[in-house]
Amino acid sequence: MPGPSRRDVKNLVRKLGVASRPSQMQAALGALSDLCIRAQSEGSDLDSDFCAALIDAAAIPALALLLGSGSPPDVQVNASAVLTFLALDNPGCAPAIAAAGAVPHLVQLLRPGPSNRRNGAAGLLAVLSIGSPSTAAAIASLGAIALLTPMLQPASDTQRNAAKLMAHLGLHDCTAAAIAASGVIPPLVRMLGPDSSLEMQSLATEALIDICAHGNASAVAAAGAIPLLLRPLGPGSNTELQQSASCAPISFALVPATAGIITGAGGIPTLVQLLRPGPGYDDDVAHNAAAALATLAMHVKNASTIAAAGAIPLLAQLLVNPSVQLKAVGALGMLAGPGANAAAIAAAGGIPPMVWLLGPAYPADVQFNAAGALRLLLGGHRSRRDDIRHAIVAAGASAGLRDQVEQVFLW
């Protein structure tokens, strides 16, 4: 079935104006909302054509006005839905929607009222805040974060979109202070519990990780999040949830106090098990686990614990895996300082692949990490140099590569 003509769309948008009777305006808006649903379901051609027709008809400013307090709730819901369609279909529309004054209206719609109105507003704000620090800052400054706290309660119709909005707001440094002061962290932590659906656990995990990465790791840890974020990393967990949760220890590991909570909760053996080949192994999860172990190993007392948990031979095996080798060699470098660990890395066969990772066939960041690991293995002790030289020769390195290692690392 052909889509609406541009002329038809323009006539519908014209009826959204103040000159139209309320019944005409509501009918036109309902028709546009239905067309959005149809366009999304029937495919990309109709989708993009309808989006272009709406933009040409100047629908954005007209719809933004309908979000205001003078409109009935069903009008506000439909206006949010059409604007969300535009923002999702054409990323260039998001700045135009914000510039049309939609954000203050949408924040007001988060206040107590019909759940579908609050849900639609949270969903549109989530889209508008993607990749836009200025929009995220505006949303936070208008008090949206505190309004999201009751929307995150269990079994709420608004929980999903509220969690998405929190995940997007958490990506920006400019919202960190507002998040810390809002009381929104505890309900997000409660969403990690086993009574929540996998989707809600995943959304809460994403939101909390983003919040941690921008200065609020201690507040998230204080709310009891760390044991709950470690729980999906155990055997038999949902792969998608495990991929999300495996990012969490990286942020916590950067802060000494929260790193201690990870180790106290048994996080190191849990992370090491994620490196082990076999059923349930996932490259993305192993990549994140290796990164977290590397960060934890910055605290010297953890390096021995990580080695004792069996990490070194597993990391050495992963040096040949292109998806994981960057973080695996970085973790081995952080573990290389203590003498016993250096010997264990050599015994696990870690030196030959490290040498090859210096070669031009590998990305620059992999070469850099491999160089750092070899330097730390040497540790400035002359007694180790011959061992490393012999290992380099045994690895079959070319004369040029051997010279490079000799000149740069065997000082």
Describe this structure as you would to a colleague.
With 411 residues, the chain is mainly α. The chain has helices at residues 6-14, 22-42, 44-56, 59-66, 73-89, 93-99, 102-109, 115-128, 133-141, 144-148, 159-169, 176-182, 185-190, 198-222, 225-230, 239-245, 248-253, 256-264, 267-273, 283-296, 300-308, 311-317, 325-335, 339-347, 351-356, 364-378, 382-394, 399-409. The longest helix is centred in the middle third of the chain and has 25 residues, at 198-222. The mean pLDDT is 87.
Features:
411 residues, elongated, 28 helices, mainly alpha
Draw up the topology in text.
Blueprint: H1 6-14, H2 22-42, H3 44-56, H4 59-66, H5 73-89, H6 93-99, H7 102-109, H8 115-128, H9 133-141, H10 144-148, H11 159-169, H12 176-182, H13 185-190, H14 198-222, H15 225-230, H16 239-245, H17 248-253, H18 256-264, H19 267-273, H20 283-296, H21 300-308, H22 311-317, H23 325-335, H24 339-347, H25 351-356, H26 364-378, H27 382-394, H28 399-409
Helix pairs in contact: 1-3, 2-3, 2-5, 4-5, 5-8, 7-8, 8-11, 11-14, 12-14, 14-16, 20-23, 23-26
